[in-house]
Amino acid sequence: MAKAKTTRASAPKVVPVAGGETHQTASDPNARITTNHGVPVSDDQNSLKAGPRGPALLEDFVLREKIQHFDHERIPERIVHARGSAAHGYFELTKSLARYTRAKMLTEVGERTEVFARFSTVAGGAGSVDTPRDVRGFAVKFYTKEGNWDLVGNNIPVFFIQDAIKFPDLIHAVKMESDRGYPQAASAHDTFWDFIGLMPEATHMIMWAMSDRTIPRSLRMMEGFGVNTFRLVNAKDEAVFVKFHWRPKLGTQSTCWDEAMKIAGADPDYHRRDLHDAIESGAFPEWEFGVQVLTQEQADALPFDILDATKLIPEESHPIQVVGRMVLDRNPDNFFAETEQVAFLPTNVPPGVDFSEDPLLQGRLFSYQDTQLSRLGSVNFHQLPINQAKGCPFQNLQRDGHMQMQVPKGRANYEPNSLAEAGEDGGPREDPKGGVRTAPVATDGGKLRLRAESFADHYSQARLFYRSQTEIEQAHLASALVFELSKCSFGHVRARVLGNLRNVDETLAERVANGLNVALPAKSAAAASPIDMKASPALRILGKYPDSLMGRSVGILVTDGADGAVVKALRKAVEAEGATVKIVAPKVGGVTLKGGQALAADGQLAGTPSVIFDAVALVVSEVGCAELLSDSAAIDFVHNAFVHLKAIGHSPQAQPLLDKAGVTPDAGVVALKSDAGPFLPPARTRQWDREPEVRMLA
Ligand code: HDE
Q1: Which of 262, 305, 689, 690 has a Cα at 20 to 30 A from 345?
Q2: Measuring from atom 43 of ligand 1, which residue has the nearest CA?
C-alpha cells in the first residue's frame, strides 16, 4: 500500500509575542506545524496506527489534540444579534463637548480613537441570511484612553418595549416558535404578532420595523442610534441627557421587499460581502456622529418621558449636533477571534458618560455582562485581544478564574494594604478625581413594581412616524403589515393588531384591513389619548441619500459579439461616480466581443442575478440576445431589475429580451450608445413612478 505524502510548505508561522500570547503570520516558508504546546509535528496526514491498516492508537496525542480542538470550535451563538459582520476603524472628534462631559474622547478635538463596529440582525441564528426584515444592531466599541466605551445601538431610534422585564418575552415571541423550530429570521408568524397585539407600547417600533429601514441596502447605508437616553457629566458633576446618533455618509438606503427576499437566496451573505469588499477596495464606510443634548428642564417640557425607550426626540425641535466621524478602514483578520468573540457591554462607559434611569437600559446594564459568561465561558473574557482595553492599561485586584491569561505578580490582591511600606508593590489604588462617577441624581422614592403614568402614551409617536412618511413609504409600510399579518394564522390576532392601528391612523388601519380582506374591528382602548405632533421629515428615508452612484454597484450583462466600446464607456462613467461594475456573462469564462477581443466575466448569469445590483445594463449582440430568450435566468435578470425599479440601460439588440421580460418604456429604461451619460441619472435612484405599474401595494 502506498504511503501518503506529507506536506507542510504553507503552514502559518506561530510567533510568540509579549505576554505569552501567540499569533500567526502566513509568510515564513520554513514554518512548521506544532501541537498547541509547541511540539513539532512530523506527519499531519496520517494518524498513528498499529500496522498500516490500523486500528488507531490512543497514544496519538497529535490526532487527539487536533480532533478535540475541532470538537469544541463552536461557542454558543448570541441569544440575539447572532448574525453579525464587523470592521475596525477610527473615531475622530471634530467638535468638543467639554461643556457637557469630561470624557477625553469627547473633548479632545482631532483625537483619533480606535474602534471596532459590529452590525447584526436580531432574530436569526449565526448562519441565517443577511436580508430578512429585521432591526439591525449597530454596536461600536471605542478603545478610549479612559477605558472601553461600548455604544450598543440599533439602526432604529426606538425599541419595542419599555421595561427590560419584557425582553425575554419579546425575543421568545419573535424567534423560531418553540415547538416547531421555525420560522428562522422572520417576524411574520403567529407568536410575534400575538405578542405585539397585546403590547400597545410596541406600536411605534412596529411602524419603524414595517418601514423600509428594516430592509437596508447595505450596512454602510444605515443610520445608527444609541436608543436609550444616557447622561453626559462634566467636570463640575453637572449632568445633561443625551441621545447618540450615527449618520451614514452614503445616505440611508433600502432594498424593495421582494428584492430582499430574492437576495436571501441569491447571496445569503449580501451585507457581509458588501462591507468586506468595500473596505478591501478602499471605499471606507463613514458615519457622522451626533448628539442631542437636553437639560432636565428641556426634558421636562417634552410631551413624553425621556426615560421611555419607545419614544424619540424629533430632531426638528431638538437638532442633532455633529461632533465627530467614524471611518471603518480594516477588515477583521479572523472572524471568530474578533467578530464572534467581541463582547459589547452597555456598562462600558468612560468617566463623563453616565446612564439614565430608563428601565430598559437598567436591565441591559445587567444582561450583557451576564450573557458573556455562557457565551465566552469565563469571567476573563475581557482579556481576549478584541475585548482588551487598548487605549489604556487595565489593572485591579481581581485574580484567577477560568482561562486567566495574565500572570499577575506579587502579593497585593487585596485593598487596602500597606505592602508598600514594606517595600513591596501595593498594587493600584482608586482614583476619586479621575475615576468614573455616577451623577448624583435624586430618585423618586418608594420601591414600586409599576409603569410610570408618563409612559402611557403608546400611539402619538407611531402616528408621528406614519404621517411623516412620503406616500411611497406609507404604501410600503402598509404593505409590509399586510404581508406579515397574512402569514399570521390567527384571526383574533390580526383583529387585535388592526384595532391598535386604528389609534395610529384610521387610513392606515383601513389600508391594512383591505389588504387582508377582513373587516375593520373596533378601535382598541388607548391608555392615553394620542396627540398630533408636527410632522418630522427627518424620519423619512426617501430623499435622504445623495444623488450619486457612490458606493453602489452596476451589473452589465454581456454576450458574445457585444459592443466593447459601450461596455468601456459605461464602466468609465460608473466608476467615475465611485460605484463598481460587474460583468455578467452566460459563461464564467467571459465573452468574445465584436471585433474578437475577449472580455472576462465577474459572474455567471444563473449565479449573478440582477437583485444584487443597483442598476443594470444589457450590452448584447443580436445572436447573443436570441440565445438569452430561452434562458429564464436572463429573463429574470431583466424582469426583476424592472420590478425592483432599477434603471436598465440597453443596446438596441436587447429589445426582444426587454419585451419578453415585460419591460415597458419609461424614464429608467435607457438606450445605450457610446456615451453612457443618459444612463447615470436614473441609475442614481429607483424609478418610484414605475412602482404602481408593477406592484399591488396596500
Ligand atoms: Fe441587546 N442584547 N438587549 N439591545 N443588543 C444583546 O448581549 C438585551 C436592546 C443590542 O454585536 C446580548 O452580547 C436586553 C436594545 C445589540 O455583539 C444580550 C435588552 C438595543 C446587540 C442583550 C436589550 C440592543 C445586543 C446578546 C432589554 C438597542 C449585539 C449577546 C433590556 C439599543 C451586540 C450579547 C453585538 C446583544 C440583552 C435591548 C442592541 C442578551 C436584556 C434596546 C446591537 O445581553
Answers
A1: 305
A2: 137
